[in-house]
Each structure stands twice: as C-alpha cells, then as structure tokens.
Design a protein that fits this description.
Blueprint: H1 2-19, E1 35-39, E2 42-47, E3 50-54, E4 60-62, H2 71-95, H3 105-116, E5 148-153, E6 167-168, H4 174-187, E7 191-196, E8 201-206, E9 211-216, E10 220-232, H5 247-260, E11 263-264, H6 267-272
Antiparallel strand pairs: 1-2, 2-3, 3-4, 5-10, 6-10, 6-11, 7-8, 8-9, 9-10
Helix pairs in contact: 2-3
Length: 281
C-alpha cells in the first residue's frame, strides 16, 4: 500500500514537472518610478505609492491614503513629510553619535537620500502634451511641484490656483466664435498660430514661450495656457480677490477675454475657487 502511494506521488510529481514551462534565463528589470521634488528646500522622494516617509526608528514607509487625497491635500502632505523626514533623519544621526551600525546603515542612508539629497527641483521633466485628448477635450494641466507656477485651465478638476471659468462667446455660433477667436489671436502682437483644425481647436504660441490651447463649442470656449517652463510662485498676494500662482497665464486669458468682449461662463463658480487673503475682508 505504501509503495502504491509513493508510486502515485512520484508519477504526479513527474507529470507536473513535465507540464511546467521553463523559466527564462534572465528576468527583465523594472525601471524605477522614483523621482525627487524640492519641497521648501527639502528634497522628497516619490514612487508609485507616494512620498517615502521616514519613521522614528529609521524604517521607510508610505502614506496609506496618498491616492485618496486631492491635489491640494497632496501638496500640503508633501510639505509635512519633507519637514518631518528632515527632523527624523537628524535625530537618527544624533542618537547614534554619527556612528551607524552595519545593520542600520541602509536605513539611514535611505533617509539621507529622502531628506538631504542635492536639490533636484524640476527633476521630473516638464514636457506637456498638446492637442486634444482622445475624449475630444483639452488635456489637464501638467503636474506642478508645490510652490511652482506654470499653467491655468478651464478644467473644473484643476486646483484653485490653476482654474479659470470657460469663456462665453455670447450670441455667436461655434463657427463664428472660432473665426472671431482666430482673428483676435492673429491680430495680437507676439502671437503665432502653430496648430488648428479649422473648426474647434486652436493652439497659439506667445513670444515669451507660453502655449495656449482653445477648444470652441456651441456654448463656450475652453482653454489651457502652459508656460515654457515652471517658475516659482510668489509666497502671497496682497490684492483683494487675487489668486496666488500662475499669474502670467491667468492675465493672458483675462486679457484675451476682454479684447474679444466676451465674458466668463460662470463667474460665481470661478469666484468660489479663489484664494482670497482674509485680512483684506
């Protein structure tokens, strides 16, 4: 009986071994998705799971709810993580008196990379994609690091500092609005049309390098204005109703609106998204 069971096991093992596919000689290495952002002078490393967080004992982890946060919440979290990582790294080195045991060396070195690597602001390449998305709508603004300016859009999903309401073209139909917008862009100093589809989409480039995209529909004109490269945002604004960040792109859209004699599609909605200095009210 025992011999019969052993024979069956041997047969099953041989059968399964014959059916298993051969393993490849080499396994392709997955490219690292890590990138580093400069947050208030403290570099923070991010990967697919979000910013890398240093714990009190030097272990590394992630924020469990990173992908559930809004863009503005993520920006605030990055500032917090950068500051706390720096403090914890300093404490780790101080507690060990500068001498790190061999088994803790990888952790402290990783903490040093997260908190004290050379500044790599803009390490993530600024390479916006232009043209309509597959859905037919304009694309959203490219990601900006906290404290940077460089894009405004009429996409309602944009954060407050990057949002402007679409433009209302009054009694004009889509074709008339398209021709009116195109004529105004061609008549503007320092503006060149570099792409158009003849009925809905226009892309213009300004002398300073900004690219502006417009999509005309029966009801309104949506837009996205993207800088040639991001710039540092001012730390605050001191005018009633002002919005921090992306001022140059914002002024460009509002000037075009006024030159055309058009209006914002939903001024109340736009006003709700503003950051207004409370001490002025």
């Amino acid at each position: 009986m025992k011999f019969a069971r052993a024979l069956r096991r041997a047969s099953a093992t041989r059968c399964c071994a014959e059916e298993l596919p051969a393993l490849p000689d080499e396994v392709e290495k997955r490219e690292s998705a890590e990138r580093t952002l400069d947050v208030d002078g403290e570099p923070v490393t991010l990967d697919e799971l979000g910013p890398i967080v240093v714990s009190k004992d030097g272990k590394l982890g992630h924020l469990s709810n990173w992908h559930e946060m809004t863009e503005s919440e993520q920006a605030a979290a990055l500032k917090f993580v950068a500051a706390r990582n720096a403090k914890r790294r300093a404490a780790l080195l101080k507690n060990r008196g500068g001498a790190v045991s061999a088994n803790l060396l990888p952790t402290v070195l990783a903490a040093a990379i997260v908190c004290a690597a050379p500044s790599l602001a803009g390490a993530a390449e600024w390479a916006p994609t232009f043209g309509l998305a597959p859905s037919g709508a304009l694309r959203a603004c490219p990601s900006l690091a906290p404290g940077e300016s460089g894009c405004v859009s009429s996409n309602p999903k944009e954060p407050p500092s990057q949002l402007l309401a679409p433009l209302r073209h009054g009694s004009l139909d889509r074709e008339g609005a398209y021709r009116r917008l195109r004529s105004q862009l061609l008549a503007s100093d320092g503006v060149a049309l570099i792409d158009e589809d003849g009925g809905a989409y226009l892309r213009a480039r300004y002398a300073d390098g900004d690219d502006a995209e417009y999509r005309v529909t029966d009801d309104a004109v949506s837009f996205r204005v993207v800088a040639q490269k991001p710039t540092k945002a001012k730390p605050f604004c001191a005018q009633v109703g002002c919005v921090n960040g992306n001022e140059a792109q914002r002024r460009r859209v509002l000037q075009l609106r006024d030159d055309l004699g058009w209006s914002s599609l939903d001024a109340e909605y736009e006003a709700e998204k503003r950051w207004v200095p409370i001490f002025l009210h």
